[in-house]
Amino acid sequence: MSLGGDRLPGSGLFSRRINRAPSRTLATVVPWLTIALASLVPLSPVIASTPVIPPLSFMLLVGWRLLRPGLLPLWAGAPLGLIDDLYSGQPFGSAILLWSIAMIGMELIDGWLRWRGFWQDWLVASVVIAAYLLLSHVVASIAGGAFAPGLILPQLLLSFIAFPLLTRVIAILDLLRLARIRVLG
Amino acid sequence: MAAPQDRRPGFSKRAHLGLFTSYVAASAGAALGFVVLVVSLLNPTAFAFARAAANDVAAPAGRVSATTRSSGKTFIDVISGYIEAGSKNAQLKEELAVARSRLAEAEAIKSENARLKALLEVRETDGTPVTTARLIGSSSTSTRRFALLGAGKRDGVQPGQPVRSAKGLVGRVLEVGNRTARVLLVTDGESVVPVRRVKGDISGFAQGQADGTLIIRLIDLGINPLKKGDVFVTSGSGGLYRPNVPVAIVRNVTRDGAVAQIVSDPAASEFVIVEPIWQPITELRDPAQETTP
Asked: Nearest chain A Cα to B19, which residue?
């Protein structure tokens, strides 16, 4: 299944086209809102005694950035990272810094690569997520506790596997984003 | 799919400026993050107010999910309970009979203990729990181990108070919001609990490893007397944690201590109890008073 414009299964959901247009507000707000909501994952029913849950909010940021370049501004890492820091349990400021660096880094990678594709996006995302998890652990171990990179391994593998699934979710959210809900005239 | 080329600014001065501004803004964001991170590493409680406020706002979502967790767990328990109902019932009845007689003995020992303590004039802080609440969240993605408690300042929760479940020690309160509190779990790398082996007077420290286990370091070095299956309880030395709350069971014996599994998995306990900070109040007798009758 290729992401060919709006010929996705489910695009018929919003099939009233005459006299309807996508809402500008909705088209802008959806990525911000989904990433901020994913930052609330620490309040989910899972009380973990080991770090097992993939960093969903960061993965959504990477996913939105790779699937829809230019939709999130380059500086989006800082405000979204701030929200994530409030709930993640990391030392405050770690996500503001790392998410900003990740956004700039992905922009540079984008300027460097000449081609886009599923496998390449997956590879880029895997590298970015691995670097993020490792640096997060470094920051957390400075704040308290031992440095043990083996700790993040299960989480890392889970994130690698989960990323393609997450891109499907983002594609569905993208349909929602461009739903024709504004009535013209 | 070829990369979109429309982000190249071309000759437009305005587009050039816009691209430049966005890079400046992003770098400024990173710089801000770095400064904030350094501040919070030097002073971990610097942004506690922001976290507490944010947690207070999001607490209802956590409460709902905590209820979901407990009901989900019960559902699975009910199904597995049906499968092994008969044999388990007989076994439990037997255990209950033994436990009842042990309980009676324990009650007698408890009252004797209270009598002896009164004789020695040892006074302790009152053990009535501050409050009972649910754990409504945990730092599930970070390598730090925190949990979020559904009770805060207005329930009387204060920083430093130990948190336990019916099974054993869970952690201690670190930051307090109005309706929520952040709990440092015993499995966090920063948490150190003074512990004692139940059998024999072997004391040490249990430090978290962030992966559900604790490292136990003994105070007296020498031949390691620990064995697999040894149970450690809080020793109460230094105050803070009330003595004789179960903490961990030894899983692997190392050269100078042991790796132990925590007794009370925070995921398995529906409600936790916040206890007051424990302090043994030892009365220092004035030697001048003793000499003059």
From this structure: A74
The alpha carbon of B59 is separated from its chain's Cα centroid by a whole number of angstroms, namely 19
Between A48 and A158, the more confident residue is A158
Count of CB contacts below 8 A, A vs B? 213
Structurally, how many domains does chain A consist of? 1
Q: How far is the alpha carbon of B117 from chain A, nearest alpha carbon, in Å?
A: 38
The answer on pLDDT for B289 being more than 80 is no
What is the torsion angle, in degrees rounded to the nearest 10, for the CA atoms of residue A145, residue A146, residue A149 and residue A155?
-30
* Interchain CB contact of A4 with B (< 8 Å): no
Token pair listed for B174: 């670190």
Q: Is B21 on the interface with A (CB under 8 A)?
A: no
Handedness of CA B95, B98, B101, B104 (dihedral sign): negative
Sign of the alpha-carbon torsion through B243, B245, B247, B249? positive
What distance in Å separates the CA atoms of residue A108 and residue A142, rounded to the nearest whole number? 29
Q: What is the rounded CA–CA span in Å between residue A74 and residue B187?
A: 37
Provide the residue ranges of all domains of chain B, joining segments of one domain with +.
131-280
Predicted confidence (pLDDT) per residue in A49-102, tens digit: 778 889 999 999 999 999 988 889 999 999 999 999 998 888 999 999 999 999
Interface touch B190/A144, C-beta < 8 Å: yes
Mean pLDDT of B76-94: 78
* Residue A2 pLDDT: 44
**Structural domain harbouring A174:** 11-183
A1 domain residue, yes or no: no
End-to-end CA distance of chain A: 36
ipTM above 0.85, yes or no: no
Q: Rounded to an integer, what distance in angstroms lies between the CA atom of residue A140 and that of residue B164?
A: 25
From the list B143, B41, B186, B260, the residue with the least C-alpha distance to A149 is B143
Alpha-carbon distance B243 to B222, whole Å? 25
The CATH superfamily of B131-280 is Rod shape-determining protein MreC, domain 1 (2.40.10.340)
Q: Is residue A51 part of a domain?
A: yes
CATH code for the domain in which residue A164 is found: 1.10.1760
Distance (Å) from the alpha carbon of B71 to chain A's nearest alpha carbon: 11
